[in-house]
User: Fold these one by one.
Assistant:
Number 1:
Amino acid sequence: MTRHCTTCGLPTNQIKDNLWVCENNHDNWVNPAAGAIVYVLKDGKVLYGVRSVEPNSGKLSLPGGFIEIGESAETAAIREVKEELGINVTLIDYLGSYSSDYASGKPAINIVFIAKYSSGEIVSSDDMSGGDPIWRDINTLPKQDELAWGWYSEAQKDFIEWHRTHKA
Ligand SMILES: [Zn+2]
């Protein structure tokens, strides 16, 4: 894909995986955008929203989103669950980070937390209003073809292993 220099607007050439340079020798580094994503647990079940926008409209999605400037990943995780599904959660652990391409090849790094439901009534909004959110039993988590994003398969494996060893 052609990238244009963010300083002068000329087309750039890719020099490295994450570096594009224009004729004026401006460096344009392309780094992943950081997202905070949450497995919300309650009574042995995990909460999923249903996406209402493309890509992957109608598929199950964990609550989460991009971290804002000046915000910690932890704060973003809690904020996104509240914004998308209306509930308050308490973070109980960090699962791991998973890289992905978002939409049109925009790279992302997904920082994944595990949280416990704390309070509030579930109200889906934002890009999660494609259907009623659902609680899925830890023993019958969604198959990959039900899920919105490819990187979930790796995270879900780690999550199942986390749950086996923590019994949360
Ligand atoms: Zn330039």
Number 2:
Amino acid sequence: MDEKLIFFKCKGCSGTIMAMDAMMCKAPTPDALSVSCAGTEMDLLEEQTADPATQKHVPIVEKAEGGIKVKVGSTAHPMEEEHYIMWIAVQKGRNVMIHYLKPGDAPEAFFPGVDTDVKAFECCNIHNLWVNK
Ligand SMILES: [Fe+2]
């Protein structure tokens, strides 16, 4: 079974964090965890899987030479200063890889040495966390 990854986003600066070993915490559920960023509360990000209106958020995993490519959206997500994909991550078993993005980049990432049977995550600075499964 894959480790459950959970993410939090700051209500102030919009920075995100991944809780390592969150299931080992004594909190009864992840949403009982209390996380703050310089004194500002951070929200637990819910995994969103369906984006029927715009189709710009659900990560799409494709085979590529030597690994996989993860694209954000069947319609490419904007990558502007005000609205962009902050990062894309993939999880395979106990391994996690994260690719950070910035405005102006393509909304995609290459991950070497893995096949398409991964859980893919992406975080939009406005619309938060999306997964492929
Ligand atoms: Fe978005």
